[in-house]
Design a protein that fits this description.
With 292 residues, the protein is an alpha/beta fold. 41% of the residues lie in helices and 15% in strands. The chain has eleven helices and eleven strands. The strands form two sheets. Strands 1-2-3-4-6-8-11 form a seven-stranded mixed β-sheet, sandwiched between helices. Helix 1 packs parallel to helix 3, helix 2 packs across helix 10 and helix 5 packs across helix 6. The chain is globular, with a radius of gyration of 18 Å. The relative contact order is 0.13.
């Protein structure tokens, strides 16, 4: 996606302000991941900025719709495995830090981090009081795929792919994946995607119902702008209430689903295969899983 000249870094003064670009134009809040050198993998600080921006969009009457997109060839490769936690709220865990491979943990650390991290991000999209469009310009993997699929509408460039990458690393899906996917494609399809971790093309994702529309890459930004501006001229509160009603119809047990996901993360991170999956990724080699 080509950024408008009006796009600007979120905030001022900090050395990392450019990792999330933000502009509001014609009632549309554009939130753009901007770390193309790492396929827009999300570090803890970026995650917090995204959550803050979505919360701000809910409260800002000047914002009537939101678009989440990215620069470069990828939408989002998931959580940044090389990021260094910036606070005690982000202890070293898979999807956050390479140091987590060898780090000692107390019982509950992993579940707590998942709740405070990936789940908060996905909940921020689901709970945003304005309609949120994902404009997926390239690869959306792991948490990046869930970030896109949590949006109310999903546009994808023809070159986009969606990958449930967790199984390749010996991990349990996080970021609400086991909650989102069955509601979008049914339990069997969801298991197929999560068990095999195969990449879906944009066309395949559209056929399965994960994507609303596939467009030529050059037209992605224009289509997203057209859809968002149409929403921005609509009845904002009615749209918010409609979103709440639709989500609630599928959402009666979200808390239980998220709690189960966090518990599964806690159990899975005691396994050798989980440690091997992350370690092999960081060492750029194929994993050698042992089944325990």
């Amino acid at each position: 996606m080509s950024l408008s000249p009006r796009d600007k870094p979120l905030g001022r003064g900090g050395p990392d302000d450019s990792v999330i670009l933000h502009t509001t134009d014609n009632g549309v809040s554009w939130i753009t991941l901007n770390r193309p050198e790492v396929m827009n993998a999300i570090a803890p600080e970026q995650r917090e900025r995204l959550i803050s921006q979505l919360s701000g969009a809910s409260a800002d009457p000047a914002v009537r719709a939101v678009v989440i997109t990215a620069t470069g060839a990828a939408f989002c490769a998931g959580a940044d495995l090389r990021a260094t936690p910036s606070s005690a709220m982000d202890p070293a865990v898979p999807g956050v830090s390479a140091a987590s491979v060898a780090a000692g943990r107390l019982p509950g650390d992993v579940a707590r981090t998942i709740r405070r991290g990936a789940q908060r991000l996905i909940a921020a999209v689901l709970d945003c009081e304005k309609p949120v469009i994902a404009a997926v310009n390239g690869t959306a993997a792991g948490l990046g795929a869930h970030l896109a699929l949590a949006c109310d509408l999903v546009l994808a460039a023809e070159s986009a792919t969606f990958v449930e990458v967790f199984v390749r690393r010996g991990l349990v899906p996080d970021g609400g994946g086991a909650y989102l996917l069955p509601r979008l494609v049914g339990p069997q399809r969801a298991k197929e995607l999560m068990f095999f971790g195969d990449a879906l093309t944009a066309a395949e994702a559209e056929r399965m119902g994960l994507v609303n529309r596939v467009v030529a890459g050059a037209g992605l930004a224009a289509t997203a702008r057209s859809w968002a501006e149409r929403l921005a001229t609509g009845p904002t509160r009615a749209l918010a209430l409609t979103k709440q009603l639709v989500n609630a119809s599928l959402d009666s047990d979200r808390a239980a689903a998220f709690a189960a996901e966090a518990a599964a993360q806690e159990i899975n991170m005691t396994t050798e295969d989980a440690r091997e999956g992350v370690k092999s990724f960081l060492e750029h080699r194929s994993p050698a899983y042992r089944g325990h």
